[in-house]
Every structure is written in structure tokens, then in C-alpha cells.
Write a structure and sequence with these properties.
- The chain is built from 14 helices and 17 strands.
- The chain has 447 residues and is an alpha/beta fold.
- Helix 10 packs antiparallel against helix 11 and helix 10 packs antiparallel against helix 13.
């Protein structure tokens, strides 16, 4: 497909749209589409300190009773380590919460005096009480809402939310909180990343909240991973190339669109939020289109483009169009499917099944969890002949899905296993790094 050369040079964002097939069965069928998003490499001037965007961060820490001891001590150290990486071109706010909310530091320029003041204030913070997660997070976001009259246009704003518990004060519904995170991202350009530590937090809250908020979800198994992960994500923020990226898809009336990948879909606009993307980053967004029965030889069209923020303006790529044609059963069955798309879709479907299985597992629906995994294993197996070069990977994926189902045969997964599975599949679907350290890297190789 063609791209506008000037637009491509300025934006360094490229969209490739590939369908698994271009023919439609007259009795109706599904077709997977892979939207491959690529971000160009950093220009030399962008890699320098003077070229990067200034940051505006809200660091929101849980101080509820369960954070007592090492977790809270290392969380404080992580905040100070983040401040040490920032300069006077950046600004920060610090919020702590239990059942009450306290703004330790209102948003201000990161100076030596601010670092000293924050360090002294954090020394006095102790764990106590319960968990007003929603109000603590929202206070953090509100504390860094941009004053557009005085802040630079390329400002990058993000909220880091660290918790080890379940929201039990105020708003606690995960769907409502995720929807609010999407609204904050869309209306204020403040993204949200979530950091869950230990085995007692709710991954089905923090995971979707980060997806909706355009940030990342991190599962931290032990306190010393807080520091690694805070610094790892901060490093990524310093190399952001495109902010508030979203994929807009237009489908004709009568066509149904289903998002497979772990992104946030605005159903009313068929807009998929990809968040902030780094230089050199690649994302695969997989959707499935359901085409209805149609006995005439009619053409169907799907269009897509990327949009993102650049200062106070919105940039966009040119629309790309895919054309599909209804055909006879024999022609449909004889069409060679795109093996690369089949492979990407199969992996993304397996990841989605794992996330759904974890949700069912946590509700005690073990039979439903196993059924979801079995269905995904069958789907991957049925796709294998279309991508023969990927046969070993397909076999490994099928075995892993079956093994996870076997683990749920009679009892729910332990929280440690459920959280790690959910984290790894969401991370893989979004092609994000694991910043937890060498132990995390070793365990990934074992999966």
C-alpha cells in the first residue's frame, strides 16, 4: 500500500494493513486483519536531553496497612530514584493513599530543593488503614492536569499507580475505573501505568485500567522489583516518539468488528487506543471482521488510519483501504491465506483466551475457564496448516493452552500463577518489555 512520503517523514509512523484473505464466503465468514504499526528510529537530536519531551509525572503510592515494612520502604526508594533521573525541565507530584488521600508534594519543577523536600516528607510516611485506590489515582491525575497557557506543547504526562491491595473504599468497580482511565487519557492526555505488588491486588482491575489509560500494567512479585520497574518505565517515557496514538477503523454497515489484541476499544467510534509509542517500537493490532451472508458478487471495504497528538494538534496518516469480494465456496476454500497474519492472529487469540480464562478462574468458573482454553487450542490447531513454517510455535502454544487448562482441573490457580499468566499474556499481546530484572528474564525463557 502507498503512503504519503512527506507525512511519513515527519511522523515516522507507518501503518501496514494485512488481511488473512480477500475473498468472502457468500454464506458469511470471519476474516482476521493485522494492523502492523511501526515507529521510526530516533533522530539524533531527539536522543539528546535537550530534544526529549519534558515529563509531568504523578507518583501515587498505596500506604495501606498491607504495605507495612519492606514494600513501603522500597516504594519510597523507587520514588526517589525516579526523581534522580529527572531534571529541572520536568515536574512531579507525589500522592499517598489509604482510606484517606494526602498530597505529599503538589506538582512542581524537579529541583534539588524539591528532591530534598520529598525525601524528608516520605521518611514520615507509615502504612495504615484501607485502600481508596480510585480516589488516590484520580487525585494524582488531577494534580498534574496541564495548564496549557504555561506548559510546553510537547509535554508528556503520566500517572504511576502502585498498590498491593484491592480497592475497598469509594469507587471499586473495575469497569467503571477503567472507563474513567480512558476518559482521563482522552480528555487530559494523562496516561496511566499500574504497578501491582504481591498476591493480593486485583489484576482484573489494574490490567484493564492500564490498557484503557494508555500505559502499562506491571506485576511485581516481590518488593525489590518496584525499583527496577519504575526506572524501566521511566526510561521508556524518555524515548517516546508518538503520544496518544490510536487506530481508527471504518467498517461498512452490517459488518461486525471484534478486537482480539489487548487494547482499549471505543466502540462508538471504532477507535483503538495504542497509548504512547517509543522510537523503533512495533505493535500488531488484530481485529476480526464478521461478514454477513450475501449472495450477490458485492464488494466490501474496510478503511483504517493512525492518529496521534503532536503538541496541541492532531496528526494522522492517510486512510488505507482494504477491498473484499464475495465469492463461491470453492473459490473461498482455494484462496491461500496470508501465513504471517494467521500466525499473528493465532498468538493473539491464545493470549486473549488466557486472559479470559484467568478472569473466569478468579470468579470460580473453572469449567468455563477450561472451555475457553480448549476452544483457543482448537482454533490454533485449525490455523496450523495455513502457516506451516510456524508449526513448532503452534504446537508449543497448543500444549501450553492445554497445560493451563489442566492446572484448573479441580481447583483455582494460585494467585501467584494467575497474576503471572495474566501479566505475561497482556505484555506479549502489546509487545511490551518486562522491566522486573534478571529473574523475570530467566522465568520468561521457561514459559
Amino acid at each position: 500500500m502507498s503512503h504519503d512520503s512527506n507525512e511519513k517523514k515527519n511522523a515516522s509512523l507507518i501503518l501496514h494493513v494485512r488481511p488473512e484473505r480477500k475473498l468472502i464466503r457468500k454464506s458469511g465468514c470471519e476474516c482476521a486483519l493485522d494492523f502492523h504499526v511501526q515507529v521510526g528510529p530516533a533522530l539524533a537530536q531527539k536522543e539528546s536531553e535537550s530534544g526529549r519531551a519534558p515529563l509531568r509525572l504523578a507518583l501515587v503510592l498505596d500506604r495501606s496497612g498491607s504495605m507495612q515494612g519492606e514494600k513501603l520502604t522500597i516504594a519510597k526508594s523507587a520514588v526517589l530514584a525516579v526523581l534522580d533521573q529527572l531534571t529541572e525541565r520536568d515536574s512531579v507530584a507525589i500522592v499517598i493513599f489509604d482510606n484517606q488521600i494526602e498530597v505529599v508534594q503538589s506538582v512542581a519543577q524537579v529541583t534539588s530543593e524539591l528532591k530534598r523536600r520529598v525525601k524528608k516528607a516520605l521518611e514520615e510516611v507509615e502504612a495504615r488503614a484501607s485502600t481508596a485506590l480510585h480516589e488516590g489515582w484520580l487525585t494524582g491525575c488531577n494534580s498534574i492536569v496541564n495548564d496549557t497557557t504555561s506548559q510546553p506543547e510537547d509535554l508528556l504526562a503520566r500517572c504511576f499507580l502502585l498498590t498491593d491491595g484491592i480497592a475497598n473504599v469509594g469507587v471499586i468497580d473495575p469497569e467503571r475505573i477503567a472507563s474513567e482511565a480512558a476518559g482521563v487519557r482522552e480528555h487530559t492526555h494523562i496516561s496511566t501505568s499500574t504497578f501491582g505488588i504481591g498476591q493480593d491486588y486485583n489484576e482484573l482491575l489494574l490490567g484493564p485500567m492500564a490498557v484503557a489509560g494508555g500505559g502499562q500494567f506491571h506485576h511485581l512479585r516481590k518488593p525489590d522489583e518496584i525499583l527496577h520497574t519504575f526506572i524501566g518505565e521511566l526510561g521508556e517515557l524518555l524515548s517516546i516518539a508518538a503520544r496518544q496514538v490510536r487506530l481508527e477503523v471504518e467498517v461498512e454497515s452490517g459488518l461486525q468488528m471484534e478486537l482480539i489484541s489487548a487494547y482499549w476499544l471505543d466502540v462508538a467510534r471504532n477507535s483503538i487506543a495504542l497509548g504512547d509509542l517509543q522510537y523503533g517500537e512495533e505493535q500488531h493490532v488484530v481485529i476480526r471482521i464478521q461478514f454477513p451472508a450475501q449472495w450477490s458478487s458485492e464488494k466490501r471495504t474496510v478503511r483504517a488510519r493512525l492518529l496521534w497528538s503532536e503538541g496541541k494538534s492532531e496528526q494522522q496518516t492517510a486512510w488505507q483501504e482494504l477491498h473484499f469480494m464475495y465469492a463461491s465456496d470453492s473459490a473461498w476454500e482455494g484462496e491461500v491465506r496470508d501465513a504471517d497474519v494467521v500466525q499473528v492472529e493465532s498468538i493473539q487469540e491464545a493470549d486473549r483466551a488466557r486472559r479470559e480464562a484467568i478472569a473466569r478462574n478468579n470468579r470460580g468458573d473453572l469449567a468455563g475457564a477450561r472451555a475457553v482454553l480448549q476452544q483457543a487450542a482448537s482454533h490454533v490447531a485449525s490455523n496450523a496448516p495455513a502457516a506451516p513454517a510456524a508449526a513448532p510455535g503452534f504446537a508449543q502454544e497448543i500444549n501450553a493452552l492445554k497445560a493451563l487448562g489442566d492446572q484448573m482441573a479441580s481447583t483455582p490457580l494460585p494467585p501467584s500463577v494467575a497474576k503471572e499468566q495474566y501479566y505475561q499474556q497482556q505484555r506479549r499481546s502489546r509487545n511490551k518489555a518486562d522491566h522486573r530484572g534478571s529473574q523475570a528474564e530467566d522465568e520468561q525463557k521457561e514459559h
